[in-house]
Design a protein that fits this description.
It contains seven helices and eight strands. It is elongated and about 55 Å long. Strand 5, helix 4 and strand 6 form a beta-alpha-beta unit. By secondary structure, it is α/β, with parallel strands linked by helices. The protein has an eight-stranded mixed beta sheet.
Length: about 190
């Protein structure tokens, strides 16, 4: 059984799973998509987890560290071409991605501190439980989403989304491939 976080599953896992199936057609995979920050949640043999680095009894292989960036549609970006960052953030809906146990506006607050504007109030807008939903709303033509652009490469490459600022925020989280040490003896897990 494989657990994948929802946004990762929707945006990145399908091509990887297709490649794996082409190479290993005899291995049956059961895929579950749920938010996961703990590789020991449920009965997964392998999981991709979004979490902060920590010492764990599981084997955690870093896939990449997350860097958040503002994304929006080109239509929204055109409206903000000549405005400064503070004016842009103040005049657009902010799309937040909430993590359980964390303040709902934490990442936007961190982003504005990083950008040198800690005075800008960011405790407004819409709050989503996944980056996928925040970006889906942004694609409707409204709002600024603060997400990991690695998860939305196709939308950025196609021009559906743009990154109007060069500012990246290291949020302290990463995506890890997690397995239990004893499961490495299972050939399917090892593959």
């Amino acid at each position: 059984k494989v657990f994948l976080p929802p946004t990762f599953a929707h945006q990145m896992a399908i091509p990887l799973l297709q490649d794996f199936r082409a190479e290993q057609p005899d291995i049956t995979l059961e895929i579950a998509s749920k938010p996961a920050t703990n590789p020991n949640d449920g009965d997964a043999d392998v999981a991709v987890v979004y979490k902060q680095p920590e010492v764990s009894t599981s084997i955690l292989d870093l896939l990449w560290m997350v860097q958040l960036s503002v994304v929006c549609t080109p239509k929204v970006a055109q409206r903000i071409v000549d405005a400064d960052l503070a004016a842009i953030v103040s005049s657009n809906d902010l799309l937040h991605v909430k993590l359980e146990g964390r303040p709902r506006h934490e990442f936007w607050e961190m982003f504005m501190r990083r950008a040198g504007h800690p005075e800008i109030k960011v405790n407004r807008g819409l709050v989503f439980d996944t980056a996928q939903l925040a970006v889906q709303y942004a694609l409707s033509g409204e709002g600024l989403a603060l997400v990991d652009p690695m998860l939305f490469k196709a939308e950025i490459a196609s021009g559906k989304l743009v990154q109007p600022f060069d500012i990246l925020l290291d949020d302290g989280y990463g995506y890890y491939l997690a397995t239990h040490p004893e499961d490495l003896n299972n050939e399917a897990v090892a593959l």
